[in-house]
């Protein structure tokens, strides 16, 4: 009986906290996202706002991503963006669903932020989520991919890399011919992993020689890993 009572209280507080979060001016974004210079980065974002006290009908939402007072992205189609952000940003979801996810392409060394989201609802209120900002950790030299090899009747090599650009994932190249396959998967809200596999029948001349995997990110940055094939 006591256990049931405790669980009931616990469930009440969990539901209360969730409902409380939905009734506040709050945006959920990562505090920092790593991104390779020249590539793109997706900034996941959802936002909440207090429920209007009256039965107001909200049917218009205007979204802005800002750095200080400068607008780098907006849901308004004909808005004139600063030259440094023109054709490099876009919203990836509908604001009516409380989703404010943004794409920043061709990441520059100056794109460190912090960036924050602002919502304007003409029938209700406007709010800048400056307390929920996100910064970009711009990586000038991407780390080498993770490379592993299994040798049996076939050589099975796997090369993988994490990245922030799902629309244009990294491209892989191998120093040996064979059957090459690749696939990408979402690791979390802002991180993806792309994996390339290489399969080929080994020859005697392949052993004690390096097998190289080179990854090329959006924007041209490259990194390479190498492993010696052993019998």
TrEMBL record:
<keyword id="KW-0732">Signal</keyword>
<dbReference type="InterPro" id="IPR003599">
    <property type="entry name" value="Ig_sub"/>
</dbReference>
<feature type="domain" description="Ig-like">
    <location>
        <begin position="122"/>
        <end position="228"/>
    </location>
</feature>
<dbReference type="InterPro" id="IPR013783">
    <property type="entry name" value="Ig-like_fold"/>
</dbReference>
<dbReference type="InterPro" id="IPR007110">
    <property type="entry name" value="Ig-like_dom"/>
</dbReference>
<feature type="signal peptide">
    <location>
        <begin position="1"/>
        <end position="20"/>
    </location>
</feature>
<dbReference type="InterPro" id="IPR036179">
    <property type="entry name" value="Ig-like_dom_sf"/>
</dbReference>
<protein>
    <recommendedName>
        <fullName>Ig-like domain-containing protein</fullName>
    </recommendedName>
</protein>
